[in-house]
Every structure is written in C-alpha cells, then in structure tokens.
Design brief:
- By secondary structure, the chain is α/β, with parallel strands linked by helices.
- The protein has 10 helices and 16 strands.
- The protein has 2 domains: 46 residues, no CATH class; 261 residues, Glycoside hydrolase/deacetylase (TIM Barrel, Alpha-Beta Barrel).
- Helix 3 packs parallel to helix 10, helix 5 packs across helix 7 and helix 9 crosses helix 10.
- The longest helix is centred in the first third of the chain and has 28 residues.
- It is elongated, with a radius of gyration of 37 Å.
- InterPro entries: Divergent_DAC, Glyco_hydro/deAcase_b/a-brl.
- Keywords: Membrane, Transmembrane, Transmembrane helix.
Amino acid sequence: MNTDLHAPLGQNRKAKRQRPGILRTGRVVAGICLVLIGASSLYTAFRGDGLKREKPPVQNQTAAPPSETVQNQVPPQPPSAAAPGMAPSGPRSGANVEQMVTGDGSVVTKYSPRQRDGNGPVLVDASQIGQDPRVAALPNDALLEETPFGRLPIVGPDGRRPMEQYARPWSGAHGTRIAIVVSGLGLSQTGTQRAIQQLPEEVTLAFAASGNSLQRWMQEARRGGHEILLQVPFEPFDYPANDPGPDTLLTSTSAAKNIENLHRAMGEITNYTGIMNYQGGRFLSDPNAMEPVMRDIGKRGLLFLDDGTSAQSKTAAIAKGTETPYAFADVQLDKQLDVNAIIQKLDELERVAKRNGQAIGVAAAFDESIDAIAQWTQEAAMRGIEIVGVAALTNDLKRP
C-alpha cells in the first residue's frame, strides 16, 4: 500500500487540484451582468415614461397636434337664464380633455380646467325637476327674496317655481301612484327624528310652522331624500276653544294681517314645495278670507294641500280662480292609533288609487303611524304601486 507508518496523520493525502478556469468564468459573467443592469438604467432614465406629450402651445401661434395626441373640448351646454354677471354652464363644461397614446397603444385621458371666456364665476345650470341629493338641503337663492320675516319663496327669473325645484323626482310612468304625507314634524324632537330616520324617502314630510329646530330638521329631511311641506295654522270652527297655535290665520282679521302671519310662517324654513293647512275648517270654508291667502301662495310658485278634513272647504274653487296648484287628501290614515288599523287605511288608499290612478293619504308623526307606513310601503312596490312626492299629484294649470 506504500504507506509510511511514521508520517503524521493526513500528510499522505493527495493535494486537491485547483480549477482556476471556472472561477475566472464566474467573475466575467458577474461583471457582464452589472454592465447590463447599468446600461438598462441609463436607457430608461433618458428614454422617459413612454408617453408622447404635446408641448404647450405658444401664444398667438397655432399648430396641429401630433397624430398620437387628441385634444377635445367639452362643448358648453345650451344657455339658460342665470343671475346677472354669471355665465351659465353645463355640469361638464369648462374642461380641456387631452388624450395621450402610450408606447404600447394604451390611451391616457387627462382633464384640465379650460380658461373662462368671460369674467366672474360659472353658474352650473340645474334646470330640472327636483334637486341633486348632494345639495338638496341648500336653497336655490334665485327662488328666495329677503323680507322682514326672513327669506320667502318666489318664482325665479326663468319662471322656475319652488314646487318644481324642491319636488321629489318620480318615474313618470303611467301606473298607480300614491303620495303619503306625514305631518306635525318639529313639534316633538324624538318623533321628528324617528320619522326622518325610519320613513322611506318617498314619503312627504310636513313641518309645523310652530315647531322647534325647523331649519336643522329640514336639512336632515332633505338630505334623506324627502319632499317637504310647511304646515300653517288655520282657524277651526270651534276656535278659540280649539286654538291651533300662535299666528293662526283667522276669518275675523284683515287680509293684510293674515298675509303677514302667512309670511311669518313661510320664513321659518326653505326648500318646501307648498303649504298644508293645520286644522282650519272655518277658514277654508270662507272664500273672502281664503282667496288672498291662496293667491299669495300661488304667485310664489307653491302648491296648497288640503288635508281633506273639512267637507265645506272651498279650496278647489279658489285655487282654480287664482291658478294655484292644489291637491286634496283622499284618506286620513291614523284616526285610530293602531298599527293594524292604519295598515287597513293604507289598503283603502291603495283601492282609491287603483280606481282613480292616484291617491293621497295623510297621517301625523305618531309612532304607530310611522311603524305602519314604513311596513306597508315596503310591500307596495311589489304590487306595482309607486310612492311619489305630493307635488307629482297636484292639479296644476301651468303644468305642460
């Protein structure tokens, strides 16, 4: 075996052969990779992001844009009546639209403001029935006038009426339509909050002029999608034993005083489509007392809803004579404060609507009424019934 027994352990092993070629090859490959990475970085930095952009135009110089870039300008909307000093504009006008084609064929669209042609702010045209829900709690200043009693509704310069501006939009379909009005909001804070939160947005809410925190409740109701009315106290037959409250419109007072009390009530809130009576059997039956009040309501672009409790009401005749939009309630829903009884009244309202094409029901903001209406309206749509705002069901001589 040629083994030296006297040599130290391990000294008789054969030396390992070195492989310098492999090591040199690895170093070369690593160096090449580093060079490639650096070259790629430099290329990317100098090449740009791949978008072919058009240079900003030079003043008083016109040039055709390159084929890869397409510039469009959103055409302005048709002109409409606007406040003096304001340029009417559509909701998408005032923008430059620039489309840039990338190296891989993708299109990138960039929107930027377009310089105004005139001076002053741009007025976005909102000529439509109803309001955008995002601004429904804000009044249209063009439909208000400043008075000693506050800001009162008026017809706008372009002929638009508050009953159109603040009405709840509906489908316009020919079918069974029902409006449900829940009244007395503002008198009870908990009842008002419950009605706004639990009633479907299709239900119209009527606020009592003598209520509390009306402006706050109005804004919350409008943000919730509700059309709203303002309830004004009118003289009942058994007045003063039955007193509807302060500033009641009376048959024994002058027309000027009644108009003053009406305006005081109107100034409490904004964004309502019309006036609804609170009591008022005697006042509604007196043409001499009712005519100037109805005329003022009509000329301000509001509707009048008669709650239907007075068989002697002269509302229809006076409203037609003054060209005031009006409507009558067909069913009082909560004469009996019981959920089942109210649901039965709602069923009766449905039968009236199917017979006549439409119907209006009124109730007060009692817990039982709110519960019954919330339950019944959920099932109504399944039977082909559309719940609409009361403005949609008015008799209006000026409606096209």
